[in-house]
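Mods, move this if it's the wrong board.
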Amino acid sequence: MSQAHRHLALLLLAEAVLCAAAMRFQDVLSNGRTAPVTNHKKIQGWSSDQNKWNEKLYPFWEDNDPRWKDCWKGGKVTTKLVTDSPALVGSNVTFVVTLQFPKCQKEDDDGNIIYQRNCTPDSPAAQDQYVYNWTEWIDNCGWENCTSNHSHNVFPDGKPFPHYPGWRRRNFVYLFHTVGQYYQTIGRSSANFSVNTANITLGKHIMAVSIYRRGHSTYVPIARASTTYVVTDKIPILVSMSQKHDRNISDSIFIKDSPITFDVKIHDPSYYLNDSAISYKWNFGDGSGLFVESGATTSHTFSLQGNFTLNLTVQAIIPVPCKPVTPTPSLPTPAVTTDASSNSDPSAPNEMAEDNPDGGCHIYRYGYYTAGITIVEGILEVNIIQMTSIQMTESQAENPLVDFVVTCQGSFPTDVCTAVSDPTCQVSQGMVCDPVVVTDECVLTIRRAFDEPGTYCINITLGDDTSQALASALISVNGGSSSGTTKGVFIFLGLLAVFGAIGAFVLYKRYKQYKPIERSAGQAENQEGLSAYVSNFKAFFFPKSTERNPLLKSKPGIV
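Not the wrong board. Structure tokens:
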């Protein structure tokens, strides 16, 4: 009897040793990582990583195993695993894994791997030669039954492949692992899937993937990858700020007396908050009070200079299924409703449940954003008040020159840029920038040369370290050489001589007819009348100045 007991104990010990030696999913998919022992809630559609792994059908290689060098023809396959994390708890987080084949290899429409046309691989090969002809085994096997050695259409845990349309042309096995559980699927050169985060604990987690390819009698590992994802109970938000005259949107420096636009982006790629009531509570930190908006975009104007702290609280009221009510013998108590809209403290709970009057249920989620911004004076406005063509002589430059007189409001500029483009202001023809020093009054004269006469669109930008403002004008530029100017002068003098002769003749006829010669006293009177006509004639053809109230009392320096 004691002998039988001894044999039974040996058998049990041997079985225990074999069970301990059996490889499990955790051993393969954790890739050497030692995860802390935690009781995770079960993710729907996932399995425990304590299940046994079929190492005979799916061999496991360590990272330094030399067999990795020969696991793929023509080179090494790499993989890229990306995620749309962070994810609000209760929403879905999506992962996309993509295989990147060696140079000149691609996947065709049938799922086979071939060399690309008109591509020279590192190792010369015939064009259109198969790297892996996966379709061959499909032709050798029937649709339902296959008795050849290609019939190993099962996952490492022994579960059969899903037989949805086209499954036989999906020749890669993807095995995902996270929080002590795994998910397995088949696919082609890329795969994606989503996981609901309701049963995943808050914080950072690692998603790892191992990819196997179909082999002759087994599956062969070809690549591994991992990435970090985050599950949070706070609504992930991003705020972008913009302003009309702001020069650098990334420095958090803005201009006073000019509206700043705040645009809130909620990161919700799975549309978990689509049916939620969302509100935005703003505190701009300038003493203007609290503002509650229903839209994601708002604007605010700071009237003072200085440093301010912006605070935003986003509240989402999310409809959820009501939990079943279990009657209790306790005495009824008054219902208490929490005013979640007044909760803007980031340390406060981020989830509150309430019953709606119509019998439905919902929870509150919050997101918080804080940023420091600086308000400065800045350049608010630029105006072109005068444009003057500069006439040049033969010995000077032939390019037409134009002086632009520009004024600005706000702070003084440190640089000026002039952009010249076609009359539609679409095709740029060049830009010139110069530093400027303004100490008293923002009035600048900017001299610019043009390649040839014509019509141009001019954009003049004045800027400092934090702001810039723009003024535009459409200008017609005449020729700048002296020959054109000389021709204009001769034409003008010719017309002046003609009008002078006509005027002299009219005056001569008039005063000869009505002036008696013998009256010497009247001669002086008529001479005064003739002087008045000559003065009017001279004033008409030779004006001294056409600008009675010049805008500039003194000519500023030319840039």
